[in-house]
User: What shape does this take?
Amino acid sequence: MAPRRLGALLMMFLVISPALFDRSVAEPDSRWEAKRRLLREKVRRMFYHAYDNYMTHAFPHDELKPLTKTFTDSLSELGNLKLEHLPQDYNGSALTLIESLSSLVILGNNTEFEKAVFWLSENLRFDVDARINLFECNIRVLGGLVSAHILATDSTDRLVQGSYKNQLLFLAKDLGERFLPAFDTPTGLPYAWINLKHGVTADETTETSTSGCGSLILEMGTLSRLTGDPRFESAALRALRKLWSMRSSLNLLGTTLDVETGEWIEYSSGIGAGVDSFYEYLFKAYILFGKEDYWRMFHSAYLAVQKYFRHGPWYHEADMRTGKATYWQLTSLQAFWPGLQVLVGDVDAANSTHREFVHVWKKFGVIPERYLLDHQMVHPTEKYYPLRPELAESTFYLYQATKDPWYIEVGESMVNSLNQYTKVEGGFASVRDVTTMQLEDHQHSFFLAETCKYLYLLFDDQFLVNQNYVFTTEGHPLPVTRDWQERLPETFIPSNWTFVEADKRTRRASAMSLRLCPASSTPSHGQRMESACHVPDAWDSHRCSTDEECGIDSSTCRRRSCSMAGYCGLWLSL
Assistant: This one.
């Protein structure tokens, strides 16, 4: 997709919310609405089958082992977060409960949400001698806490009035402060692992991934906005900018790097494991915070991905230095990409890639962790499917963008497969081998945080009506609010911004910042608002060689085209 078209479509698909889409176009008929209601209830039963079994057999430990109806403290890899009022040798953090908080709200269970909030408020503590993985703890625990805090305070009928006093936010700030020593490196890039009580140990590894140090800005930025403490957002932003400065001349990044030296370790990269959420957070941070830097970085990175990684509907891996293909493989984590493309507005490309993932799903009944494209076979050692949510996520976004009932059929196929192959008496089990459907005794917390959530939202989007949310990479919703948007400094005066008189003060404003549209706003008192749809031409001289170098006209919201003489204008309307 050309840069100008990408920018023009940004405002159209800025945030996934039903209010943004024209309901008068391609509205599903009553038959599809009936099917959606039926499937919604099916997903509701799935969620509670998983949740109730966790609460019965595993709570307050981290995750459920559904085959044996026991538990696993999976945060032992992340940190052994001990809880007060429990035996000293207990190792658990109620991870699945934290991850389920926003899902409970989306399903309309405010009673269970309230019980979970107050249990965590009274029991969860982070002052423990525990080594945690910064990225995982950030997206799962910190993200779960800040999202739940917002949901607990944005509606008076979710909790008993006056009973909630920001306890989850206090926990989130305590955790965020324990993250900060990880950023104390010569480069500003954080260590992948840190001890919650003692900070970074002398023998800690200096290796981390691009996702690990470049996917912290949503949760830590939100924490700063909620607390008024800029340290969290500043640390995450410094790391992100340093990481971007390490890109190659092709605007590509590698997969792993050294936080002390700032040198790359693994030069091969793609849109899958180790890099995926880096791209996701660049764009979603732009939506959430409005900082132009995020858009510039994402725009350049997106074009590089399309140029060097894309091969038809698939995306292979390539060397960041040369752009030459290294590995021709599909990984299940790549299935998030069509959903991101929908947010950007590249719907045709999203649909093309999504259909290939659906084809693989239908071939095996689920998606294998790694599929070798050049050999058309499952990777011999990575045959598993751990109940991942990425395909459900992209299916949800594509249905929201198109209202095409085919995506409802895709969701139905996924629901049926999950119930047929992974549902057991004690919950939902991961698949160890997709070629035999042998199961593994593990129900990951993200099955409740994401997989069930996106499937439910596919069939019932009531939670999103009249609301704008950005979902983190772990599926935790964060609201898009004007108060969090970047305010440009006085010295920055783009040509499409004007002065607006208000309260005897002069400030810079645009239709985008004030959420106004020329068709619905009437100039008064000398005010003149620039269209939010305005996209400047690629060059200040308005010279062009193709239509893609022309933008969107600021007054008519119509696309400009390139004349035979090589100038952008509204030539097609003359």
